[in-house]
Design brief:
alpha/beta, 10 helices, 2 domains, single chain, about 400 residues, globular, four-stranded parallel beta sheet, FAD/NAD(P)-binding domain
Length: about 400
């Protein structure tokens, strides 16, 4: 039996497990520091109160039990011994024939921005998203307590970073606030959303169609867009810009950058400036043909040499490739090289509205784009739920035996 170790229960890790599980001569061990899979692409809806925890978290133990030759271990991997093909787990070693590193990335709270880490939230972890949601609901509650006709100060919510995550969070929160005007009256108008980015446009690196239509939608929702805005300092109540201007805020979320997770630092391999692993054309690390890395923890480039944005789509496509590559190596064949590309992009923009582009020539917006995006997400979610239901039944059955 060939033993494969998959480190990381994110989008790429789960797709790797799923793809390898069909091989009867392969046994997979999934390892993650958390007991759950976090659907980070749905964070925007969770923060704004649109989704519940049940919609964005999946128990990895029950999910793994839904397969025949998959087991789950909850632990933090601090190093991987490539030479001896093992990791340390409690007082023992877990050996492998192949290992897939898919530990994702974390928010990069830039050290050159004083006070940023201490005074802002990220959305890369469920815990930080949970805390941000609490702050948002507390702000709404404060407005609800204000008596009609009383003077009320403006409350500003700042979103640092106008990439995909920042834009989706800003749009959904603005949409929710707009709808709250029905229940808390004109007091909702005192809550302002500011979307801030140092680039000269929102969603840098995307198409003109995506940028143009996303900008229009954000403006309709009342989002204040600040581009070419360089933050120099963040204190407990104000954001300070390099041009000397300031913005008072109630709370801030930062989505302006990522860096590799801690395990990357322990791996002796070539890395880029944010510690992502530099892999070869078959996604191998440091020349080891049995060591693969996928998703956000690696620097992924397309055929033109352009760095691709960290997305669930890229993580899953690299995972599917690695599963096939492992199968090839088991069969003593050399896999084809990995071709990285972005097939399409959808941006959720509050309510039942989205903007999307597939294969560069299919362009959609509005409710049609929303339902296409929802269908993709729902198919993924249902797949997880069916597997977790099977795993839960297996757990109950084994307990009763």
């Amino acid at each position: 039996m060939v033993k494969v170790l998959v480190i990381g229960g994110g989008y790429g890790g789960l797709r790797t497990v799923e793809s390898l599980s069909k091989y009867e001569d392969v046994e997979v061990t999934l390892v993650d520091q958390n007991p759950y899979h976090y659907l980070q692409t749905e964070a925007y809806g969770y923060i704004a109160g649109k989704f519940d925890v049940n919609d964005i978290a999946i128990d990895l133990s029950n999910w793994s039990l839904g397969f025949e030759r998959v087991k789950f271990l909850q632990t933090t991997v601090t190093s991987v011994d490539f030479e001896n093909r093992c990791i340390d787990y409690k007082d023992e070693k877990i050996f492998f024939d192949y290992v897939v590193i898919g530990i994702g990335a974390k928010t990069n709270f830039f050290s050159f921005i004083e006070g940023l880490r201490e005074n802002s939230y990220g959305v890369k972890s469920l815990y930080r998203a949970f805390n941000f949601r609490k702050e948002f609901e507390e702000l709404i509650y404060q407005k609800l307590q204000t008596r009609e006709g009383e003077s009320s100060d403006e409350l500003n919510i700042a979103i640092g970073g106008a990439g995909l995550s920042g834009v989706e969070v800003a749009a959904e929160m603005a949409y929710v606030i707009k709808n709250y005007s029905k229940t808390i009256g004109n007091r909702a108008k005192d809550i302002k959303i500011y979307l801030i980015d140092a680039s000269d446009t929102i969603l840098p690196g995307t198409s003109k169609y995506i940028i143009k239509n996303t900008t229009k939608r954000l403006q309709v929702l009342g989002v204040k867009i600040l581009t070419n805005a360089f933050i120099s300092k963040v204190d407990s109540s104000s954001i300070h810009f390099k041009n000397g201007e300031e913005l008072d805020y109630s709370f801030m979320v930062f989505t302006g950058g990522i860096k590799a997770s801690d395990l990357n630092e322990a791996i002796k391999s070539e890395k880029n400036r944010i510690d992502q692993l530099i892999v070869d054309k078959t996604l191998n690390v440091s020349g080891y043909k049995n060591v693969f890395a996928i998703g956000d923890c690696i620097e992924m480039r397309d055929e033109r040499g352009n760095i691709l944005p960290p997305t669930a789509q890229s993580a899953e496509r690299s995972a599917e490739y690695v599963a096939k590559a492992i199968r090839s190596r088991i069969d003593n064949a050399e896999p084809e090289i990995f071709h990285a590309s972005v097939m399409g992009m959808f941006v959720a923009l509050g309510g039942k509205y989205a903007v999307g582009e597939v294969f560069t020539f299919i362009k959609v917006r509005g409710s049609m784009a929303f339902f296409l995006k929802k269908a993709i997400t729902y198919a993924y979610y249902i797949g997880l739920r069916l597997r977790i239901n099977t795993g839960f039944k297996n757990r109950v059955r084994n307990r009763d035996i």
